[in-house]
Amino acid sequence: MVGAGRLATNVARALKEKEHCIVAVYSRTMASASALSSMVGGYATDAVATLPLKADAFIVALKDDALPVVIPQLLQGRGNQLFFHTAGSVPLSVFGAKGHHGVLYPMQTFSKDRQVDFSRVPFFIEGSSDRALAMARKLAQELSPLVYELSSEGRRSLHLAAVFACNFANHCYTLSDHLLQKHGIPFSVMLPLIDETAAKVHTMSPQTAQTGPAVRYDQQVMAAQMALLADEPLMQQVYALMSDSIHKSQEPQ
């Protein structure tokens, strides 16, 4: 495992549960590498050069901007090995033109202290060779029945869609929490609403499920809510842009 962050921790744990042997864990800091290796086995290291020269697979789960830095170091002396990265927006070409490499992208949000049920997580795979693609599929299918082959270009668009569906939605929760805290209201009051909103899109399109003043284009309500945000100019901009986008999305195409 090349990486010991949130995604690496969840993937390593899941592979360990499937009786794979984690032989080594790399992280930029020894503390992080040691924390993960203590859970899944293998030796910990903060030096890429001390990783094994051979393994069934090297799984690189690092921040996107670290991949172009770490991967060339990782490839040295390991020319015929199998390498996989786990990033949504990084192309397969980050490994270079030669060798056997691929992508194992689990489209999910991860935290170290929450164990993800991978059986419900879609994996998107890619490979530079038949050998790499076959191993990517084998590893993915051991963790999830939802495995799809997708190009780097397609995966970039998928990741962008995920940013809107997950990261931006979660930021809206943060903004909501900020407003509630001003009045001493716990964020927990929003959970039934959030759960129902998420449940609805299992059975209808997001556009059909949309409700609220912007859908109705209730200008009086929207103006009043904009006024409530007078001391929050950035949130005011977000409210205005989101409301305009929602309204326009409801217009006949």
At a glance:
With about 250 residues, the chain is an alpha/beta fold.
Map the helices and strands.
Elements: H1 6-17, E1 24-26, H2 30-40, E2 43-45, E3 58-60, H3 67-75, E4 82-85, E5 100-106, E6 123-127, H4 130-143, E7 147-149, H5 152-181, H6 191-200, H7 206-209, H8 213-216, H9 219-228, H10 233-249
Parallel strand pairs: 1-2, 3-4, 4-5, 6-7
Antiparallel strand pairs: 5-6
Superfamily at the CATH H level of the largest domain? Answer: NAD(P)-binding Rossmann-like Domain
**Largest sheet properties:** 5 strands, mixed
How far apart the termini lie comes to: 48 Å
Helix fraction, binned, reads: 40-55%
Q: Which parts are unreliable, with pLDDT below 50 for 5 consecutive residues or more?
A: none
* Sheet with most strands: strand arrangement: 3-4-5-6-7
What shape does the CA trace take? elongated
Under CATH, the topology of the largest domain can be stated as Rossmann fold
Q: Using the CA coordinates, give the radius of gyration.
A: 22 Å
Q: How much is the average pLDDT? A: 96
Count of beta strands: 7
CATH architecture of the largest domain: 3-Layer(aba) Sandwich
Structural domain count: 2
Main CATH class of the largest domain: Alpha Beta
Structural class: alpha/beta
Query: Number of helical segments?
Result: 10
Give the strand content. Answer: 5-15%
Order of helices and strands: HEHEEHEEEHEHHHHHH
